[in-house]
Amino acid sequence: MSVERILLTNDDGIDAVGLRALYDALSADYDVVTLAPTEDRSSVGRALSDDVAVTEHELGYAVDGTPVDCVVAGLDEIVPDADLVVAGCNKGANLGAYTLGRSGTVSAAVEAAFFDVPAVAASMYVPGGSDWWKRDLVAANFDNAVRATRFLVDEAPDAGVFDRADYLNVNAPLAEEDSDASTGPAPMRATTPSTWYGLEATRNGDGNVSFADPIWGRMTPADVPDSVGTDRRAVVDGEVSVSPLSVPHAAEPDAGLEALADAYAVAGRP
C-alpha cells in the first residue's frame, strides 16, 4: 500500500506538544490533516458524541469531541481519502492489554480499523511514579516516539505489516533533553500487550471508592512484573515497544454455547 495522506489525531488535545512533534515530523513528506480534540480527552475510550463542532486550526481542524469523533468525522466526511491514521503522541504510556479499551489514543486507531484504514497509536512513557502527569514536556522529549512512528509510517506499509495487523500500538521511552547523543535512539522491539492486571479499589470513610494502579510504582527492571517480549518490559528496558494488533475482538466458535442454545430452546420457562 502507498501512504500519501495521513489523518493525525490524539486525546491530549490539538495544542499538545506531542501532537505537534508528530505533525512536524510527518508533514515534511506527507500530506497531514489534523483532526484533534479542542481539549484534553484522555481515557475516554471509544466514546462517541451525537454531533460535534469542528473549527479550522493551523494544523487542520479542532473538534469539540472525543478522539473517536475525530476519526469518524475525518474518515467519513472531512478526509475520506486518508491512507493512514496516526494517533498521538500521547503524554503517558498505554501499556498492557487492560488499557487498550480505555485509551483515547488507542481507541482512535481501533476506530480507523473499522474503516479499513491502518493506524499507528503512539504514546510515550513518562517516568515519575503516580505524579508523572505533572511533568512539563518539550518537543525533544518525544524524539524516541517521533522517530519510531515516522519509521513505521515509512516502512510498515511496504513491509506488509498492515496485511496482517490492523494497527500498531507504539510506546516509547522518554528522551531526556540532556541525553548523550552518542548512545543513539532507543532500539525497537516487537511485543505483545502485558496481561498483568493489578488495579485496586479502596472504600473510603466518606462513602467513596478510590482506584489505584500499582504498576506505576513498579516500573523498574527489578520490579516490573513482565517478561521480555511484553510491551511494558520493553519500555522499562529503554526500548520502543511496537505491538501489532487487530480488531474486532476474536469470537470463539467452539465455546460450548451451541449446545446451550439448543437446550435453551426446549427448556421452557423456569
From TrEMBL:
UniProt enzyme class: hydrolase
Positions of the Survival protein SurE-like phosphatase/nucleotidase domain: 6-177
InterPro entries on file: SurE, SurE-like_Pase/nucleotidase, SurE-like_sf
Keywords: Cytoplasm, Hydrolase, Metal-binding, Nucleotide-binding
Cofactor note: Binds 1 divalent metal cation per subunit.
Subcellular location as annotated: Cytoplasm
Gene3D superfamilies cross-referenced by the UniProt entry: Survival protein SurE-like phosphatase/nucleotidase
GO MF entries: 5'-nucleotidase activity; metal ion binding; nucleotide binding
E.C. no: 3.1.3.5
Superkingdom of the organism of origin: Archaea
Main subcellular location: cytoplasm
One Gene Ontology cellular component: cytoplasm
Binding site for a divalent metal cation: D11, D12, S42, N90
Pfam families hit by this protein: SurE (PF01975)
Known cofactor(s): a divalent metal cation
Swiss-Prot/TrEMBL catalytic activity: a ribonucleoside 5'-phosphate + H2O = a ribonucleoside + phosphate
Family in the record: Belongs to the SurE nucleotidase family.
Protein role: Nucleotidase that shows phosphatase activity on nucleoside 5'-monophosphates.
Protein name, as recorded: 5'-nucleotidase SurE
Originating species: Halorubrum aidingense JCM 13560
